[in-house]
Structures are given as C-alpha cells and as structure tokens.
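User: Hi! I have a protein structure encoded as tokens and I'd like to know what sequence might fold into it. I'm fairly new to this, so please keep things simple.
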C-alpha cells in the first residue's frame, strides 16, 4: 500500500506541477482572487455571480469563469496531493523498520507541502509577486523530487557501485538542473520568456544591453523595479539571457555526466539523461522561435520536471564503490544508503 500510494502521489505531483504551469501561463493565477475558496465559495459554480460581476467590470482582466475553474481545479488537485502525502507519512512511520521506507523523508514532505500551501495562498493574496511565484514552483518540484526518491527506494531497484568521480558528476548535474529550474521559474514569473525573440543571439547581439541590478532584485512587485518604477526591458533581457547562459552550463555538465555513465557501463542511464536534455533544449529553442505558444511553454515546464526526475533517478541508483559510502556509512550491496 505504501509503495502504491507513493507512486500515485508521484504521478499526481507531476500533474499538479504541469497544470500549475498551465494556469500561470494562461494568465489564470488570479482567476479566484481569494484563498482557499473562490469569492468565499467552494467552487466557481457557486461564485458565478461574483465572477460575472468582476468580469463585466474588466473584460480583459484576470477574473473570468474559465480562469476561475482553472485556478480552482489546480487547488483541488494540490489539496488532494497534500492529503495523500499525509497518509504516506503515517504509513512510513508505521513501516519505518523496512529498509525500503524512508520515514524521515516522508515526514519532511509533509512540512514541504504545508509550506507549499502557504506559498500558494501568498501567490494569490500578494498578487503574483515574482519571488513568491518562483518559490511556489520550486516547492512543487521539491515535492516531485522527494517523492521520486521515495518511489525509487520503495521499488527496491538494484543500486550500482561506481567510482566516486561518476557520483560527483551526477551530484553536480542535479545541482545544475535545480539552479536552471530556479532561473527558468524567475524568467517565467517575470514574463521575460520573449525578452529575446531571436536565437542564438539576443536582439542580434551576443551581449545585449542588460540591467542585472533590477533583474534579480527579489523583493519587488510584479513588473516593477524596487524603486516603484516599471521594470525596464533591459532588466527583462538580463533575466532571459542569464537563463540561456545557464542552459549552456547545464548542457556542458550533463554531457560530461553522460560520457561518464557510458564509460562506466550505464548506457541506459546516460541515454535517458541525453534524451531528456535534448528534448528540453529543443523545447526551449522552439519557444523562442515560435514566440511562446501555450502548449510549448507548458511542455517546457514539463520537460524541466522530467529532467529533474531523471537526475534524481541517476543519483539514487548510484553508490560509491569505496568501502565507505557517500555519507560515511558502511557500504552494503543489499542495503539502501
């Protein structure tokens, strides 16, 4: 039961993350401007008079009935996931002596989900502040990564002993992907995805005019500089171009990892990393060249989640071939580190 629920939660988390990206990219993040309900009601159907009144006052605004449903469906899914993770934590504590169960991680997940719920609330009540929205994205992908770890441990898959250099490359690759996801979230939440509309250059230059000081100032309103003025186009360009530079570092780091995996005899793992990386690069380029169609933008977010899952899998299944493992524990081929 524990293993099945973890797998269900993993799939549901992926759905929540991707659907959350769809809600954000379709401008439905404020479809219901209060929390946890919609105009104080349990569903948009019950709040239809209030939604219709808001839509009539601002026809092109963030509040419409379809947008409200998108926002509330996302909340329903997230609430279901939170309940499921609580049940998983309870089961994990009961089965904590099983070497395939990670009770500490399961309990940690409960804390992550509670904080994630608060971030979801603040995303709405603080009117889509970039730092809060980016944090909400990071929280969702943290939940996804931890559930993937629990699922891999619960499945009892064989772990492979490799030299320490390969493990270090896998760790670095995971950290690079996480950093790039944060940059991608910052790009998306600041609506900077089309600040550079050409490729591979930006505005025909390899180093366009940029404003880094305001671009990465965390505490500010959406679309505003810290001094209250509108965020400049140079700041948006700096956000976008930094995300592209980050993609170069990720590509280089993962290609080195792929080469090491093939060299160590783990071609299947290396192939998965290469396929996920190539797909994500292709989606990123296509989004720029085709001017960010909604389907491709959502797919790019899904690709980031898949790449994260692949790197979590690689890091979970590799152990050091030294007598002492990564965290100093005695290596045991039949145990889970």
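Assistant: Happy to help. Inverse folding works backwards from shape to sequence: for each of the 337 positions I chose a residue that suits the local structure. Here it is:
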């Amino acid at each position: 039961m524990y293993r099945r629920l973890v797998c269900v939660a993993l799939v549901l988390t992926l759905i929540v993350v991707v659907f959350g990206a769809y809600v954000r990219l379709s401008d439905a993040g404020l479809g219901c401007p209060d929390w946890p309900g919609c105009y104080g009601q349990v569903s948009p159907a019950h709040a239809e008079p209030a939604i219709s009144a808001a839509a009539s006052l601002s026809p092109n605004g963030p509040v419409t009935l379809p947008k409200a449903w998108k926002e509330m469906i996302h909340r329903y899914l997230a609430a279901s996931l939170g309940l499921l993770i609580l049940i998983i934590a309870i089961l994990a504590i009961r089965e904590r002596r099983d070497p395939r169960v990670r009770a500490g991680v399961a309990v940690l997940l409960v804390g992550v989900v509670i904080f994630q719920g608060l971030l979801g609330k603040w995303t709405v009540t603080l009117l889509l502040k970039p730092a809060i929205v980016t944090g909400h994205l990071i929280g969702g992908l943290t939940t996804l990564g931890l559930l993937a770890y629990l699922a891999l441990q619960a499945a009892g898959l064989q772990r492979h002993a490799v030299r320490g250099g390969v493990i270090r490359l896998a760790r670095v690759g995971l950290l690079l992907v996480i950093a790039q996801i944060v940059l991608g979230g910052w790009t998306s939440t600041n609506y900077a995805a089309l600040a550079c509309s050409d490729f591979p250059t930006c505005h025909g230059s390899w180093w366009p005019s940029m404003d880094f000081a305001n671009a990465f100032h965390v505490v500010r309103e959406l679309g505003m500089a810290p001094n209250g003025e509108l965020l400049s186009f140079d700041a948006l360009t700096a956000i976008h171009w930094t995300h592209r530079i980050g993609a170069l570092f990720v590509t280089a780091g993962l290609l080195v990892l792929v080469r090491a995996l093939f060299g160590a005899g783990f071609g299947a793992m290396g192939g998965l990393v290469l396929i996920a990386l190539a797909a994500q690069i292709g989606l990123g380029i296509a989004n720029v060249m085709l001017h960010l169609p909604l389907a491709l933008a959502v797919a790019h977010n899904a690709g980031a989640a898949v790449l994260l899952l692949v790197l979590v899998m690689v890091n979970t299944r590799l152990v050091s071939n030294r007598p002492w493992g990564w965290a100093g524990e005695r290596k045991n081929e039949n145990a889970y580190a």
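A useful reference point when you look it over: The chain has ten helices and two strands. Feel free to ask if any position seems puzzling.
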